[in-house]
């Protein structure tokens, strides 16, 4: 540190300004320097553009902006301070900063910081503000670090922070301290700024897979109670944590491909218990590992195969995945294999087309919300609804944890029918995977049961058709093809209870029985 006697302070006036037009902070700092008998001088910024500087020169800016500030910022041997920084140093007997970065205030003096989780632009702005407040910023976590500014706590810099004596802070902390320091004398450790300390699960956006329904509920409560966010789907652009015991399923695969942390739920339990982010090492789930949940009820927990939904047509564009342990659908089953042109009118009548408007009126969005994630894992396509009706159904489906598709795909588990749409039926006919085709009544019953209801009694084809005229002899040519359809069966699926446990239904004879009774209007 240079002797105070050798220091020369230049109080800089922006172009076109006089010292009387300078800020009160500048005038107070100048007066204090006079009282300390320092070498000081008012100078116009433009007069110093080409000045050869030394370490003894200290430039006092009322704002860190302008041509001179930019010019001096690229030089390595220049000391630039703000008036508030100078006032604090002289009043408290502190040395004038000899930092390589400009220091406008001392609001973060004696603090050593690093950050994590932010994009490049946000990080650069963050570092600039820290240094302008006299803080020392490190790219890596070091033993001397006192604070970590983080977007979320799911990273190595935050793990074990409590034992290391490191405080985790939000980005708002830096911004609020900076703004306050421009107006008054503050320090980042003041009590008024402690509200910006990260809560336990700050920034955590978690999902889970291959867990019992009761454990999922427990996890959701713990996460949300500690200021994290739990969601049923995996959104690779936002999700940063997957809780899983067995390394299988689409969610786990997607997490591995997108570097999303996959840990045992025990990590969450221990983190909440200890009140700090536990290191991942002892909890990480890898493709060759699994975590065993010991519980007396575990023997009653049957195996369920995972069914996933994907937002986006191409696997390469996959950004969202939703898995469920409450749904098991056989790829070999069929919704409908053939719809004859001469029977479409009958199908439309049998669909209850005159009823679906009334059923929609009965849908209560508030009741649906009370039912919770009653459609967790269901992948739904809405057929035959106008925009207003679709919006109402969308809100019910989203609130119930279902994934709604905008087009028919092989990932669907359900198609809810309103008005008969022949083109949708054609696509279902061509689909390799056949979902359940149900009426709005199924949705109403699911809300009532607070879980996905059995589809059989709410099948689009459930109602008996009105009597039909005997077919003409010519139509007998088609009878062979029609009879072949009657052998198809509906896929089996687990019955979902309120606790998530399920028992496998036997294969439904819905299509077999219904198509035999309807006989597609061709032959009997």
Automatic annotation (TrEMBL):
Signal peptide: none annotated. InterPro entries: BRCT_dom (IPR001357), BRCT_dom_sf (IPR036420). SUPFAM superfamilies: BRCT domain (SSF52113). Keywords: Repeat. GO terms for biological process: DNA replication initiation; mitotic DNA replication checkpoint signaling; mitotic G2 DNA damage checkpoint signaling. Transmembrane segments: none annotated. PROSITE patterns: BRCT. Residues 111-179, 188-285, 370-460 form the BRCT domain. It comes from the Eukaryota. Pfam families: BRCT, PTCB-BRCT. This is BRCT domain-containing protein.
């Amino acid at each position: 540190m240079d002797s105070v006697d050798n220091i020369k302070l230049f109080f800089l006036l922006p172009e076109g300004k006089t010292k009387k037009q300078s800020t009160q902070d500048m005038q107070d700092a100048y007066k204090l320097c006079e009282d300390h008998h320092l070498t000081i001088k008012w100078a116009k910024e433009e007069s110093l553009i080409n000045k050869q500087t030394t370490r003894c020169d200290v430039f006092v800016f009322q704002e860190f902006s302008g041509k001179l500030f930019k010019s001096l910022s690229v030089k390595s041997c220049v000391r630039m301070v703000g008036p508030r920084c100078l006032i604090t140093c002289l009043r408290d007997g502190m040395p004038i900063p000899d930092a390589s970065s400009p220091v406008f205030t001392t609001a973060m003096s004696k603090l050593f910081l690093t950050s994590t989780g932010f994009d490049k632009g946000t990080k650069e702005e963050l570092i600039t503000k820290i240094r302008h407040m006299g803080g020392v910023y490190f790219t890596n976590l070091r033993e001397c670090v006192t604070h970590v500014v983080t977007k979320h706590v799911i990273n190595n810099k935050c793990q074990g922070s409590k034992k290391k004596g490191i405080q985790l802070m939000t980005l708002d902390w830096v911004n609020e301290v900076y703004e306050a320091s421009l107006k008054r004398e503050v320090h980042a450790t003041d009590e008024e700024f402690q509200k910006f300390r990260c809560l336990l699960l700050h920034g955590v956006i978690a999902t889970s897979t291959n867990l019992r329904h009761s454990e999922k509920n427990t996890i959701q409560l713990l996460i949300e109670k500690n200021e994290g966010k739990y969601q049923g789907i995996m959104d690779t652009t936002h999700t940063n944590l997957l809780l899983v015991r067995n390394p299988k399923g689409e969610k786990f695969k997607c997490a591995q491909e997108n570097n999303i942390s996959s840990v045992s739920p025990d990590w969450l339990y221990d983190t909440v218990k200890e009140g700090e982010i536990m290191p991942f090492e002892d909890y990480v789930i890898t493709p060759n590992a699994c975590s065993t949940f010991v519980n007396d009820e575990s023997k009653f927990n049957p195996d369920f195969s995972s069914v996933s939904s994907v937002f986006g047509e191409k696997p390469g564009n996959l950004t969202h995945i939703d898995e469920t342990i409450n749904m098991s659908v056989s790829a070999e089953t069929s919704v409908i294999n053939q719809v004859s042109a001469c029977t479409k009118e009958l199908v439309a009548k049998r669909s209850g087309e005159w009823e679906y408007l009334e059923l929609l009126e009965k849908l209560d969005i508030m009741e649906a919300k009370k039912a919770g994630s009653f459609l967790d894992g269901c992948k739904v396509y809405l057929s035959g609804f106008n925009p207003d009706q679709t919006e109402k159904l969308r809100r019910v489906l989203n609130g119930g944890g279902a994934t709604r598709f905008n087009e028919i795909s092989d990932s669907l588990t359900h198609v809810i029918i309103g008005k008969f749409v022949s083109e949708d039926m054609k696509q279902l006919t061509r689909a390799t995977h056949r979902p359940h085709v149900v009426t709005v009544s199924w949705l109403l019953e699911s809300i009532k049961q607070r879980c996905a209801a059995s589809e059989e009694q709410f099948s689009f084809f459930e109602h008996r058709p009105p009597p039909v005229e005997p077919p003409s002899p010519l139509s007998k040519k088609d009878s062979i093809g029609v009879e072949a359809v009657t052998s198809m069966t509906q896929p089996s699926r687990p019955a979902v209870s309120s606790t998530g446990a399920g028992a496998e239904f036997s294969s439904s004879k819905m299509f077999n029985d219904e198509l035999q009774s309807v006989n597609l209007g061709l032959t009997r």
